[in-house]
Amino acid sequence: MAVSSLLLRLHLVVVLAFLLFFALKAGLLLLSRQEALRSLRARTRIVDSVLGLLILVSGGALLAQYPGRVPAWLWTKLALVLLLLPVGIAAMRRQNKLGVVLTLLGFLYVYGLAETGSLALQRPAVPATAAVLPGLAETTATPDAAVPIEDTTARHASGLSTTDAATIAAATPPATDASATASSPEKPILAAGKALFQQNCEVCHGLDGKRGINGAHDLTKSNLNTAGRVYMVTQGLGKMPAFKGQLTEAQIQQVVAYSLTLK
């Protein structure tokens, strides 16, 4: 998973570099600085080609390693990138200001997709019935203890936003025997959970749970109990993919049991 982490970082750096060059050239075009634009394009022609190729290669590799089912927003992001790259390059070559502006707006939308994991550029809506999040104060209370979402101290300690906390609260059942399993798991369960965690979670969370790539929460600071974690792994939330259908219920319990040891 270290390779996946490096690949993700490379992809982010390449994308930012490409957008920086494109935005700079777009600014020169819109300001009618033709001579400066021609000079910059001549110096960065090879760089642009290399960056574009790296975006496609690294993005494709990351997509192939994506844990769980690939969501619709990610397919949309991929399709837009494949469309915007050639359109933007062609618009810049023809010095088409409208085409360049539309391409920039398209890239901004793609960035919003990556940040929110939503086609509407919105976080998951808060269900009207959501009132409490079970088990936030896991380290100081029983697993099925209820903490109001308005309790911002507990919510911040969990590493979740109000929206995320409410979403889990609406769908998370009361903690059952799974909580007892997580509090005193057998070594084989932890070993299996660690292996599954390395295969599916380490790329974003890190093996120690602290990496925080791609919006992943620091698991060592999370006070979510077993039921809340099982829900998140099963159903996904925001940019976190759902593992329902990819992992069995037993495997999800194993991953959760291992995650509870990350302190």
Automatic annotation (TrEMBL):
The keyword Membrane applies. It comes from the Bacteria. The chain crosses the membrane at residues 6-24, 45-66, 72-91, 98-114. One of its GO terms (molecular function) is electron transfer activity. InterPro entries: Cyt_c-like_dom, Cyt_c-like_dom_sf, Cyt_C_IC, Cytochrome_c-type_DH, SirB. Keywords: Electron transport, Heme, Iron, Membrane, Metal-binding, Transmembrane, Transmembrane helix, Transport. PANTHER family: BLL4482 PROTEIN, BLL4482 PROTEIN-RELATED. This is Cytochrome c. It comes from Hymenobacter sediminicola.
